[in-house]
Amino acid sequence: MNPDASLITALVERWRPETSTFHLPCGEITITLEDVVTLSGLAIDGDAVVVDIPDEEWSAICLRLLGRVPYDLVGGVAVVRITWLRVEFSHLPDDASQEVIEQFARAYALSLIGGVLFPDRSGSTVHLQYLLLIEDWERAGGFAWGAAVLSYLYREMGRSTLHISHTGTSLAGDLGGWVALLQFWAWERFPHLAPRDSETRAPATEDAHPRGLRWLSASSRQYGDQLFQYKLWFDAMDTVVVSI
User: Fold this and answer.
1) Which of 53, 34, 50 is nearest to 42 (CA)?
2) Per-residue pLDDT tens for 80-125?
3) Under 8 Å CB-to-CB from 121, ≥6 apart: which residues?
4) Closest residue by Cα to residue 164 from 154, 153, 175, 155
5) Which residues, other chains included, contact 109 with Cβ-Cβ below 8 Å and sequence gap of 6+?
6) Residues 2-55 pLDDT 10s
7) Which of 88-124 are b and which e, b meaning 16 or more Cβ less than 10 Å from the residue's Cβ?
8) How far apart are CA 141 and CA 48, in angstroms?
9) Measured between alpha carbons, how far is 226 from 209 in angstroms, rounded to an integer?
10) What's the gap between Cα 44 and its chain centre?
11) What residues form the membrane-spanning segments (predicted)?
């Protein structure tokens, strides 16, 4: 899904890192852990998503857990391209062993982590530190992924707030973190900004679970000067949906 850059920019302009809230005329509001689990289904209880610095070389870790190493993974470089993951692990052999199946599963999970949950501002690479979190599947299932996603998004919005204040320019695509989660949240909290049912490629059902699924095929509403229009709306905002 393509993010609505104008909506995201208008929101982030109202983000205050010191309080981790959006400042609106009607008061302060923020994305909560409850919002994350409701919209995404990701766990908010469990172990913290923390990676210890490994003793192994990153190339050795990559070979052990993925079964292959990209040609440009040299020296101290600890990132792989998401396109490399998708190309190299696009087809699972019919006679794959259990070890190979797990390697393909890790590659898929790593591409989701780097491309959806914790993308950097480029959205094209993922750090191999996350590979250590999915080495053991049982342990991986015990992490509070939802809490980590929210924390990462908070940090990225704080950085982007500084970017806007220092440069005075729009974010465009220059925001890391799970931007779609922020967009789903905005559509739920401010329904008049959300796509109409007729503008979605699939019905936005009320009973979808997790609730973010109701927006998965939605297209952003189109206006003349998108950013200016969103700014006017937020400046005049006097009510929000307090529960989703």
Assistant:
1) 34
2) 999 999 999 999 999 999 999 999 999 999 999 999 999 988 888 9
3) 156, 173, 174, 175, 176
4) 175
5) 134, 140
6) 788 889 889 998 999 899 999 998 889 999 999 999 999 999 999 999 988 888
7) bbeeeeeeeeeeeebbbebbebbbbbbbbbbbeeeee
8) 12
9) 30
10) 15
11) none
Q: Is the Cβ–Cβ distance between 115 and 176 less than 8 Å?
A: no
Structure tokens at 85: 């993951």
Residue 219 in tokens = 């297209």
**pTM for the model:** 0.86
User: Six-digit token pair at 7?
Assistant: 């909506």
Mean predicted lDDT score pLDDT of the chain: 86
Structure tokens, 133: 């979190």
Left if phi > 0, otherwise alpha if psi is -120 to 50, otherwise beta: which for 35? Answer: alpha
Burial class (CB in 10 A: 0-12, 13-18, 19+), 65: middle
Mean pLDDT computed over 127-147: 95
Cβ–Cβ < 8 Å for 8, 177:
no
* Ordered alpha helix ranges (H), 3-66: 5-12, 33-40, 58-66
